[in-house]
Amino acid sequence: MSALLLGTRRLLTRVPLWPPSPSLAARALCEAEDTGKAAGESQPPRPPFDLSLLEILVCPLSKKPLRYEESTNELINEELGIAYPITDGIPNMIPQAARMIRKEKQEDESERA
């Protein structure tokens, strides 16, 4: 029985510690932010969205074509009233990541009236 426990202890001590400790992750994030924000430097412009992707991308929910909105850097589905964000030039087509825009438009119209 003790040999079995000893073997179990060896396995437990060899398991890598994953995910890394929060302090290491926070330190790495702070270092990355510090290098990008040197004195007098502005943040680099975001990578442009490749408009040729609009020919093949469709909304994963309705399968309808999308429209690119440059001011918000999003792909818009007018029919459903949702906007998919574009991060670093890559569209995030996960429905849970999309934001509702139809409600925002209705609120704007009601405020104007």
From TrEMBL:
Pfam families: Trm112p. SUPFAM superfamilies: Trm112p-like. This is Protein preY, mitochondrial. Gene3D superfamilies: 2.20.25.10. Belongs to the PREY family. It comes from the Eukaryota.
